[in-house]
Design a protein that fits this description.
The chain is of the alpha+beta class and about 290 residues long. It is built from five helices and eleven strands; from the N terminus they run αβαββααββββββββα.
Length: about 290
């Protein structure tokens, strides 16, 4: 008879896991939060949704209003992907995720760095029957960084399956270089004028014969992916929610490109970093591990 356990993993990534990550561009290291912690985090996300919605700071990634007018069409009616930004700056409970030393240690291993900083955290949610799909994209094109020295840690707050909106990944796509960022409503790309002429839109993996893996994740567990890995997500066609807290870790010493590359949530003046200088300051703290 199989024993059900609430144990979390605290050990460093193994050599085999590091090889797997650098080969595939993603990894599922295991469980990092207990059932009790997950229940607390679910409550935090639901509370944050109410508070942020009242301030107009809960976004729907499928809303054409948040993307350039010439790059999107109206999304499928009734579908949405909810998004909250940088909850660690005001909610102490979220800090058990964003400043989790195990996640930070894994991120340092995966980026080959001695120290890592928080680039941002997000709460993402797809409500039952309403959560839409996100088109193929990479994380790095949306970040004002000079180098792709960053990883995303995606912590599931619900059991994630294909039915309730799991992510999909293209193994090995992180070695294929940067693509243009997509406006999620249609997958149309934009910011072409800010990128080198060799940077082009992302391909549909099926059309170019690339394999796709669906990333199922139990609640409390994490998947981690390289910031250049191609990924998308399926719609939520189930009766259960798909909620997650996502932390983006960047290697200390990575250079800031700011508005020269992408209009981030904070302006260059707000972050107080000169373009070309290493990332740092109050918005991008080091995470001890």
């Amino acid at each position: 008879m199989q024993t059900v356990t609430d144990e979390v993993r605290t050990s460093a990534l193994s050599a085999d896991e590091l090889v797997e990550f650098h080969h595939k561009g993603f990894l599922r290291p295991g469980r990092v939060f207990t059932t009790e912690q997950v229940e607390t985090l679910r409550d935090v996300v639901e509370r944050a949704r109410v508070l942020q919605r009242g301030k107009g700071e809960e976004w729907d990634l499928l809303d054409p209003a948040i993307w350039p007018e010439d790059s999107v069409l109206p999304p499928e009616p009734g579908k949405s992907v909810g998004f909250l930004f940088n909850l660690w700056t005001w909610d102490q409970d979220i800090r058990i995720v964003s400043f989790n030393p195990v996640l930070a240690g894994w991120a340092a291993q995966l980026t080959g760095s001695r120290e890592v900083r928080i680039l941002e955290d997000n709460a993402l949610f797809k409500d039952p029957g309403k959560g839409g799909s996100l088109k193929w994209h990479q994380d790095y094109p949306y970040w004002p960084l000079a180098q792709p020295n960053a990883v995303t840690a995606w912590v599931a707050l619900d059991d994630v399956t294909a039915e309730n909106g799991a992510m999909q990944m293209v193994p090995g796509s992180h070695v294929m270089g940067e693509t243009l960022p997509a406006a999620f409503g249609t997958g149309s790309t934009y910011l072409e004028d800010l990128r080198p002429p060799t940077v082009r839109p992302i391909d549909d993996p099926a059309e170019v014969g690339l394999p796709v893996e669906t990333i199922t994740v139990p609640a409390g567990s994490v998947s981690m992916h390289h910031c250049l890995t191609w990924h998308a997500s399926l719609p939520n066609v189930s009766t259960i929610p798909r909620r997650a807290i996502v932390v983006r870790f960047v290697a200390d010493g990575t250079r800031w490109f700011g508005s020269r590359r992408y209009e981030f949530n904070y302006s260059d003046d707000e972050v107080g970093i000169e373009i070309g200088d290493p990332i740092g300051g109050k918005y991008f703290p080091l995470v001890p591990f």
